[in-house]
Specification:
Distance between the termini: 42 Å
Shape: globular
CATH topology of the largest domain: 2-enoyl-CoA Hydratase, Chain A, domain 1
CATH class of the largest domain: Alpha Beta
Number of domains: 3
CATH superfamily of the largest domain: 2-enoyl-CoA Hydratase, Chain A, domain 1
Low-confidence stretches: none
Number of strands: 20
Radius of gyration: 29 Å
Strand order of the largest sheet: 13-12-11-14-15-16-17-18
Bound molecules: nicotinamide-adenine-dinucleotide
Helix content: 40-55%
Number of helices: 28
């Protein structure tokens, strides 16, 4: 009946196998085939029971989310109607869960009357991570099988559980031995005398749950899921399961699922899901591109970044040699690393044994002659071109010819650094974000001369280190910081003209960022931003700069490190309070600059900040510094906390409409001058009524 479903009879048991590689996703064709075969089995007098399983390593990895945006053909039942066909089936139907059963996969298994699970299989309801709730009975059946508390944890958290735990929790009836299918067929026959056991009819595990429990759960997750709807709706749906009849619960779940699926937040989260997978696709690099082995690494500079980078290697089980100019510097660097690990041990996140293993992988030296057989070197010394060129020249002489030499520079021209070596094809950028042992992003910088092999190796290394590597080109601040600096500058201008830093920060926080630009500035150091601005003034003197930051810098208030910057941090607190001295400086400076201060609406603050990001993102794309708009979204989510449920700046731009953004940016251009000039790409896409998603960078 269908080429994605295989059917065979084993004695009196009909075995339905989903074969829709690679993930056995519940596409329209799979749903149709499952319904047809189930019905056929129910009508077949020679069939006493049914087993549903998956071919290959997956049971069913979930719904086919690409089909969310498509119209369902008339002859395909809705997934939840298929569940009804199965649940109301007149003969026992057993799910033989052979591998991953996520989302719709677990729902399908729970819609069956019994479940046998293979060791190593994983089951879960990760829908919340896509901004939706389970839509085919997951929120109603899981509490009936596993109890309300477990169901809440699994549905609201979205993380899977292993087969053994699934049995303990009551999600599966039995852990199979070696031959899952044989056991499932035997089990199905054993159940013929009992008949079907519809999950919807099970109430013993629902118990009476105190309504307060749900209230407390909502409070518990509120901060972590700020701005999202799905987590709260997951809780509501499980509460309905615990308090209302099954059919009513299914109808509630369905309504909420459809509303969330069609809303912008879920669309944004689905976009991010695909965007994260797209970053790995690089024109010219295929599975056949050779990748160098990375078994020994070195990090030059044991400061803020170098220490964190070295930890990444040790965490991944790769030996790493830390290099600095003196034993004192190394001792200090190693001490910080040890302190970091010890903190994780004391919080129970790492065992002492693992910490010892990792520390043992980190060695240190002051001599490049110890680096001869290193596979990759990451340089993280001061941001100074001459120093970096000198170091790369020395590394070139000291390391074997294959060694990849990468720089963690935030802004310098890596083409120039590469030219200081005899192997520019092996020179690239590996731009980690601070704190480097925590932040998931790496901007992997492709220099003009870097070989495909070097880039493929670097991208693979990101994965090995548990990072999301995004390929970018050489340019001022690469992608993320270039955009950030423009938005930060416009934020400072708003303050010159009438807004206050805490007003700007509140709007940006409410949009969903972890913090606004002034709080971020206090965290990173006003002195750091001051020196970046000095550099930029030297390089691009024509760029207009706000002077308020200079005035704040001159007071010696550098941010959290001095217990005060834009805000004051009482007693070392990380939560700043607005500082009257700063407000005085701002008002005075505005007057000196001749500004009649004016109020800014929240909408205007948001538009100026986010559209400045978007316009710069468009320039980055136009210049070919990012491969696709969605790569920029990934950078902004992982590097700067752009809320996932807004999908990154470029996706957000498409939602707003590029014509509106172009008009506003044109206005900013008039206000601020050429550094806010609308990008040509923004202009042309807006003119054609297109979005960034329509823009394909030619390779
Ligand atoms: P840092 O000042 O904390 O550390 C620099 C280290 O390099 C010091 O330990 C210093 O002793 C060492 N060093 C200096 N000269 C050396 C030499 N010749 N040989 C070996 N070691 C030497 O600086 P950082 O904040 O870690 O920044 C390092 C690099 O990372 C810079 O290029 C910076 O732009 C970049 N970066 C920094 C951040 C950040 O947030 N701090 C983020 C991304 C990238």
């Amino acid at each position: 009946m269908s080429d994605v479903i295989e059917f065979r009879k084993v004695g009196a048991v009909g075995v339905i196998t989903i074969n829709n590689p690679p993930a056995n996703a519940l596409s329209f064709a799979v749903v149709k085939g499952l319904a047809e075969h189930t019905t056929a089995c129910m009508n077949d007098e020679l069939c006493d029971a049914v087993v549903v399983t998956g071919a290959g390593k997956m049971f069913v990895a979930g719904a086919d989310i690409r089909e969310f945006n498509m119209t369902r053909p008339d002859d395909v039942p809705e997934f939840h109607d298929l569940m009804k066909v199965i649940e109301e089936g007149s003969k026992p139907i057993v799910a033989a869960v052979n591998g991953i059963a996520f989302g719709g996969g677990l729902e399908l298994a729970m819609g069956c009357h019994y479940r046998i699970i293979a060791p190593g299989a994983l089951v879960g309801q990760p829908e919340v991570k896509l901004g939706i709730i389970p839509g085919a009975g997951g929120t109603q059946r899981l509490p009936r099988l596993a109890g309300v508390e477990t169901a809440l944890d699994m549905i609201v958290g979205g993380d899977p559980v292993r087969a053994e735990e699934a049995v303990e929790l009551g999600i599966a009836d039995e852990l199979a031995g070696e031959d899952l299918l044989a056991r499932a067929v035997a089990y199905a026959l054993e159940r013929v005398a009992d008949g079907p056991r519809p999950t919807g009819g099970i109430t013993s595990r629902l118990g009476a749950v105190d309504p307060q429990y749900f209230e407390e759960y909502r409070l518990k997750i509120a901060a972590r899921t700020r701005g999202q709807e799905a987590p709260l709706e997951c809780i509501n749906a499980v509460e309905v399961a615990a308090t209302k009849p099954f059919e009513e619960g299914l109808a509630h779940e369905r309504d909420v699922f459809v509303r969330l699926r069609d809303g912008d937040k879920s669309k944004a989260m689905r976009h991010m899901f695909f965007a994260e997978r797209e970053v790995a696709k690089i024109p010219g690099i295929t599975k056949q591109t050779p990748v160098q082995k990375i078994e020994k690494a070195a990090v030059i500079g044991s400061g803020t970044m170098g220490g964190g980078i070295a930890m990444n290697f040790a965490n991944a089980g790769i030996a790493v040699n830390l290099v600095d100019v003196s034993d004192e510097a190394l001792t200090e660097g190693l001490q910080k690393i040890r302190g970091n690990y010890a903190g994780s041990v004391s919080r129970g996140r790492l065992t002492q044994e693992k910490m010892d293993e990792r520390m043992a992988l980190i060695s240190s030296t002051t001599s490049y002659s110890d680096l001869a057989d290193t596979d990759i070197v990451i340089e993280a010394v001061f941001e100074d071109m001459d120093l970096k060129k000198k170091i790369f020249g020395e590394l070139d002489a000291a390391c074997k010819p294959e060694t990849i030499l990468a720089s963690n520079t935030s802004s310098l021209d890596i083409n120039e650094i590469g030219a200081a070596t005899s192997r520019p094809d092996k020179v690239c950028g590996a731009h980690f974000f601070s704190p480097a042992n925590v932040m998931k992003l790496m901007e992997n910088v492709r220099t003009a001369a870097a070989s495909d092999e070097t880039i493929a190796t670097l991208m693979k290394l990101s994965k090995t280190l548990g990072k999301t590597g995004v390929l970018v080109g050489v340019g001022d601040g690469f992608v993320g910081n270039r955009m950030l600096h423009v938005a930060a500058r416009i934020a400072e201008f708003m303050v010159e003209e009438g807004a206050l830093p805490w007003e700007v920060d509140q709007v940006i926080y409410d949009f969903g960022f972890p913090m606004g630009p002034f709080s971020m500035n206090d965290l990173a150091g006003i002195d750091v931003r001051y020196s970046i601005r000095q550099e930029q003034l030297k390089l691009y003197g024509d760029r207009r700069q706000s002077v308020i930051l200079d005035r704040v810098y001159e007071t010696g208030r550098y941010g959290q490190k001095t217990n005060g910057g834009w805000y004051t941090y009482e007693g070392g607190s990380r939560n700043g309070t607005p500082e009257p001295i700063i407000e005085d400086i701002i008002v005075k400076t505005s007057a000196e600059l001749g500004f009649q201060r004016r109020p800014f609406s929240n909408e205007e603050i948001l538009e100026r900040y986010v559209y400045a990001l978007i316009n710069t993102g468009a320039k980055v794309l136009e210049e070919g510094l990012a491969l696709r708009a969605s790569d920029i979204d990934v950078i902004w989510h992982y590097g700067y906390g752009f809320p996932r449920y807004r999908g990154g700046p470029m996706f957000y731009a498409d939602l707003v409409g590029l014509d509106k953004i172009y008009d506003k940016v044109s206005q900013f251009h008039e206000d601020y001058g050429d550094w806010m000039k609308p990008s040509n790409l923004l202009k042309s896409l807006a003119g054609e009524g297109k979005g960034f998603a329509d823009y394909v960078v030619s390779s």
